Amino acid sequence: MNFADHEMEQLSASLDGRLTPEEQAKLEAALAADPQLRAEQAELQQTISLLRDLPPLEPPRSFALDPAVYGRRRRWGGMALRWASLVGMLVLVAALSFNWVLGDSASDLAQAPQAASQSADNASSEMAPMAATDAMSTASGGMAAASGPAADPAGAAPPAASTFPTQSFVLEQAAEAPTEAPALEPTGEPAFEATATPQLALATNPEPLETALPEAAGDAGPSDSLRLQPDTESYSDSAAYIQLPEDVYLNQAEVITPSGSSSPGTHKLVPEQPDQFNTTLDAQAQAGGLALGWIFLIIVVFSALLALGLWWMTRGLR
Amino acid sequence: MTEFERELVAASKKGDIESFNQLVRMYEGRVYTLACRMLGDRDSAADVTQETFISAYKALRRFRDGSFSAWVLRIATNACYDVLRSRQRRPSTSLDQLTQPQDDAPPREFASADPDLDSQMLMRELGEQIQAGLMTLPPDQRVVLIMSDIQGYSYDEIATATDTQLGTVKSRLSRARSKLRDYLKERELLPSQYRS
């Protein structure tokens, strides 16, 4: 006969004396009335007796810990190593943060003088024929960074070079009137085209230019002169500055200047900063990063040596 | 926990390995017995016992107040569960090593010459059968039965060691006893049967 789990639990608990007086009285009444229940209780008692009579199992050896391995000195050594590791990690984090912060600021600082001198060089070597007209435009204000040094090929770097990180670009449209074109290119087009920058296909036609640069079209209108590099005084009145989208910058479409071609209204994109400028900046940034990298490496090696030394010292204390 | 045990625990927390080793000597028999009965394997039980005391020493700072014995048995129980789980993944370890005679036990063929040895042989065979019956129980019922009926721990200590409620201990113990009773009864190993 199988009894319910509750009855078996009561039987089991009664053998351990875990029933309340009321539960015990109730169980004893059931036992007195049911011989099968009494047999169950007897078998459970025999099972418990068998288990309690089992001989104890002797451990095959001592499990005491080795004082040489787990002793107090070992703990001191472990603590020293933990502290050394913590200090090393903090140094690493500080070095990484230092590298990151200083890397950014150093790159910014390096850009300013370099931008000025590089702009001057480019202007003197490649845009010299435009120097006279640029100087006039610079005086009218609102000029880009590259136009300032262009007026002074001797290399006096103005602080205007700090405008380089703004990545501003100006759309410059050729004058519709053919009579104004000669003022734009007093020395002829070949010298202007020799900037060695790729003539991008973005603005060879006014229609695609308006599509790509709706802000430019809306602000100045397709017939206005939109320019960053004021080449002539006649264009400075209608000059407008337009911030081009990032993707245009990424595609190296930067400044639209009059191409000097015979067809009025033709646009051409030329970069505001020559490629050599970015190349030199990259090289200098790499040099700065390399120096910081060496500093970082030295800190790492020093931390490792410190941790090793502490480990060796605590090991010797054992 | 006695005052002496409390002092040993306090000293052990400060890194006194000798005080901790006194605790080890006090409890290693119980831990080893629990592991042996749980795993049915002396070698694994020895490994678990050593691992238990190393873990206890490393985690001693987390032990607050209460029964040090129950705390150590809890570590041992978890270590036994880990071994049993690994056996389920890789069932290659023999489970009946515990039933094999130890090196210092007399060979069976010479046991019949001495009545005492006969009695010892009977007791050993009974012990082997009981161990085999224990191994048929689910681990959560087995550990409760071992702690209660072999090692004599109270319900409260078992609940602490197994991290369960008193009601759970009560029900698991009842089921474990019933199952082992059935196992022994089938083999006519209950006292009223094998004595007749």
Structural class of chain B: mainly alpha
- Strand elements of chain B, count: 0
Radius of gyration of chain A: 44 Å
Provide the β-strand percentage band of chain B. under 5%
Mean pLDDT of chain A: 61
Structural account:
The complex is a heterodimer of chains A (318) and B (196). Chain A is mostly helical and 318 residues long. Among the domains of chain A are: 5-52, no CATH class; 118-278, no CATH class. Chain A contains 14 helices and two strands, in the order H-H-H-H-H-H-H-H-H-H-H-H-H-E-E-H. Residues 123-242 and 246-268 of chain A have low confidence and may be disordered. Chain B has 196 residues and is mostly helical. Chain B has two domains: 1-93, RNA polymerase sigma factor, region 2, helix turn helix motif (Rna Polymerase Sigma Factor, Chain: A); 108-190, Arc Repressor Mutant, subunit A, CATH 1.10.10. In chain B, helix 2 runs antiparallel to helix 3 and helix 4 crosses helix 7 (155-162). The longest helix of chain B is centred in the N-terminal third of the chain and has 23 residues, at 17-39. Chains A and B meet through helix 1 and helix 3 of A and helix 2, helix 3, helix 5, helix 6 and helix 8 of B.
